[in-house]
Write a structure and sequence with these properties.
By secondary structure, the protein is of the alpha+beta class. The chain folds into 2 domains: 2-116, Aminopeptidase (3-Layer(aba) Sandwich); 125-256, 3-Layer(aba) Sandwich (Aminopeptidase). The chain has helices at 2-12, 21-28, 36-40, 44-47, 82-91, 107-111, 147-154, 165-169, 213-225, 241-249, 275-282, and strands at residues 14-18, 50-57, 60-68, 74-80, 97-102, 114-116, 122-127, 140-141, 173-177, 180-191, 196-204, 231-237, 253-265. Strands 1, 2, 3, 4, 5, 6, 7, 8, 9, 10, 11, 12 and 13 form a 13-stranded mixed β-sheet that branches. The chain is globular, with a radius of gyration of 20 Å.
Length: 286
């Protein structure tokens, strides 16, 4: 009887593509701290680069999957009920390779269709005006003309070189020692409409770690974002206690853990040749 009931429930869940931003915004808004990236991707500047799938049961959305366009592996975000996520990944959102962000309890739905790489859990942290505790330091707002030094600090190769538009469209702060950029922090996405900012790309040169530089530049970016955002979030590897503690001192609160995994479609002939990209992504502080 239980098997029959499960089959009936699966049959009742319909997966389809959608471009209805109001529908997506209403569903994602139920968990703004986890869905911060996805909510920002509903803005005009990002929406054209995305594909959205929803699972609907009885007229209500029960799961969402977001596929972001770009070079492989493209980002993939899933949220909601496991049977709904599985239906969307089975029927409408089907990348061969992706870098998925999902709550731990949703991994079985992803694993039904993908082979998952190993990876440390991530911690989502958040802060607002009331909780933020700034860290005064000598930092400077980076300009588009600083993009060369920023890429040198990040040690990016040509294939992943950040364009100057990243600074124009985002918020970046840095610290220089002897004229050399030795620490920086910036943003992944900003949504003026959702009033959400996502801090990222925090890095200190190995020769200058342990001096509070990462905390200083993160504080500067956060303060700037809170001028027009109600919520600022960032991600930290769960196995990075120094970074977690630094962000706590700025007032960031741990919301929960989730997973970021490289995934390959089951049955796909594409081998895992993306280890260098994975190493670059995971070595960042947040």
């Amino acid at each position: 009887m239980a098997t029959v009931a499960l089959r009936e429930r699966r049959a009742a869940v319909e997966a389809r593509l959608t471009t209805d931003r109001d529908l997506l915004r209403a569903y994602l808004g139920q968990d703004r701290r986890f869905a911060a990236y996805a909510l920002a991707d509903l803005d005009d500047r990002e929406f054209s680069r995305t594909r959205w799938g929803v699972a609907v049961e009885g007229g209500a959305v029960v799961a969402v999957a977001l596929e972001y366009a770009g070079t492989t592996p493209q980002p993939l975000f899933v949220m909601g009920r496991n049977d709904g996520i599985s239906a969307v990944l089975r029927d409408v959102i089907r990348p061969r390779v992706a870098y998925v962000a999902a709550k731990t309890e949703n991994l079985p739905a992803v694993a039904a269709h993908y082979r998952l790489s190993a990876g440390a859990p991530m911690v989502r942290m958040w802060v607002d005006h009331e909780r933020f505790r700034p860290y005064p330091a000598a930092v400077e707002r980076l300009l588009p003309s600083d993009i060369g030094q920023l890429n040198k600090l990040y040690q990016l190769g040509f294939a992943s070189w950040l364009p100057s538009a990243a600074i124009v469209e985002g918020v970046y702060y840095g610290i220089r020692v002897g004229g050399r950029l030795v620490a920086a922090a910036g943003t992944h996405v900003i949504s003026p409409s959702a009033r959400i900012g996502v801090v990222g790309n925090v890095l200190t040169h190995t020769d200058y770690r342990g001096r509070g530089f990462a905390k200083a530049v993160t504080s500067a970016v956060t303060a700037d974002l809170l001028r027009f955002c109600d919520l600022v979030v960032l991600n930290v590897r769960a196995d990075n206690p120094p970074a977690l503690q630094a962000y706590r001192r700025l007032g960031y609160v741990e919301y929960g853990t989730f997973e970021e995994r490289l995934i390959h479609r089951l049955g796909s002939p594409l081998p895992d040749l993306l280890a260098p990209i994975r190493r670059f992504i995971t070595r960042r502080e947040p």
